[in-house]
Amino acid sequence: MYNYAILTYEKRLLGETPVKAIELSDKELVQGDSVYLVGIGGDHSPVMKKTIVTSIGNVGTKECSPPRWRAMNEWLEGGA
User: Structurally, how many domains does the chain consist of?
Assistant: First the structure.
């Protein structure tokens, strides 16, 4: 959703560490698509939820004055 990072690494330096490469899709999401949302829970542990895209649209935010963090280009979770 926000505050994310994409990391690169040299697999040979990880030895036997069980790390798998992710596959990023270039498919544009449409209503009805099944997706997995991955994030960090309130206790800072990783969480994952399977859900369905119920709508696609813009998130309205107000101008920030003074400048501060605001939600921009966020995905809205919906569905099961």
Answer: 1
How many residues in total does the chain contain? Answer: 80
48 φ, ψ (degrees, to nearest 5): -140, 140
Q: pLDDT per residue over 40-72, tens digit each? A: 788 888 889 999 999 888 766 666 666 666 665
* Spatial CA neighbour of 2 closest among 64, 67, 59: 59
> Three-state SS for 11?
helix
Domain that includes residue 8, residue range? 1-80
Q: Is 51 exposed, middle or buried (0-12, 13-18, 19+ CB in 10 A)?
A: middle
Q: How far apart are CA 37 and CA 21, in angstroms?
A: 17
0.90 exceeded by pTM: no
Query: Average of pLDDT values for 5-17?
Result: 82
